[in-house]
Predict the 3D structure of the following.
Amino acid sequence: MNPPFYLRETPTEELLDLLDETVLGTSGARYRHLDIRNRVSTADNPLFLTLERSNKVLANVTFCRRGSEWYIRFFAFQGALQASGKNHTFEKRKGVLKNQLNQFFGAALWGNVGDEKVDSFYAYIDPKNERSKWMSENFGFRVAGHLVTQSFSRAYPKKSKKLRRIEDWNAVSSQIRQNFSSHQHYNEAQISSPPFYVLLDEQGEQIAGAHIMTVRWQIERLPGKYGAVLTRLIPFLPFLRKLIKPKDHEFIVPDCVWSEGNDPNLLQELFSAILHEEKLNLMLWWTDDKEDLYKSVKNKVNWGIFHKLVGVSPVDVVVLEKNPRQSKLPFFVCGWDMV
C-alpha cells in the first residue's frame, strides 16, 4: 500500500477515534457503539486498511482473516465522507478509496497480499444503509443470503431452575459443532470465549443452549416505521423505559442458539432465563432466515413488546469470491460480527 493508504495489524489511536465517533445506519435505526474499543481489541486476526490525511483517519475497512474466508468489519467513513451529494472533495476521496479497494480485493483474491490465501470476502449489510450498499455494489459483491434481526424482550424475565452458566468451551463445543459446523462461514474464533448458557433436563443432559455477549449502544433512532417517534416517547412510557435506555442501552446478543427438537417453549424459557440471570430486558438475535430452528419457532414464540413495535429487520449476506459457488446451507452467524 502507498500513502495515503496504510495496512496495519494493530489499530492506531486515530482509527479508534474514528470508530468512536461513527454513527451506524443511514435510515431506520441509527446508533453508536459505546464499547467499540473493547470490541476492536477482541477482533480475530485483524487487518486494518485505512485512508489517512493530516494525521486523521478518513476511512477504514477492517478484515478478520479467517483462513481463506475474510470477514469485513468496521467499515467506517469520517463524517464528511458519509454525506451524499455532489461535493467535489467527497466524490474525489470516495473515488480514490474505490480504486484502492478494487486493487486490494483483486490482489488478495489472486494471491498477491503477502503469503495470505484468500478465496472469498463476506460481509453483512443493512439493505437500507447507503454506505454499505456502496461498498457492495461497487466491488462486485453478490447477495448470497439473508439474515433476520429478531428481538426478544421481557419487562420481567422469568428465571429457570434448569439454567446453568458455563465458562468452559469444552463443555459445549460438541453440541455447537453438531448443530453448526456444516454451516457456511462457520468458525470458532469468537464463539469459543464464554459465557455460555444451557438448560438441563432432570438427567443433567443439555436440552437447549446459547453463547452470549453483552453490548452497549447509544441509540439515536429505533428501527421501524415509527422508530423516530418511539425514541422520543421512551422517557414517558414506563414499559418502554424499562426495555430501552437510548443514551446507554445494554442488551444481550446470543449466537449458537439451539433447542432440542427445535422446541419453541425451550427456546423461550432459555432466553427469558438468560435475561433474568444477566439482569437485562432485551436480546437481539441475528440468524439466517433458512435456519431450521428459526423457521420452526418464529411464529410460536412470544417475542415480546419490542418485537411488536419494530418487527423483524432484514440483513443481506454479501460475498465476493474467486470462484462463485451456490449453496443451500444456512450461514453461520456469530454475535460479535453483528455488533
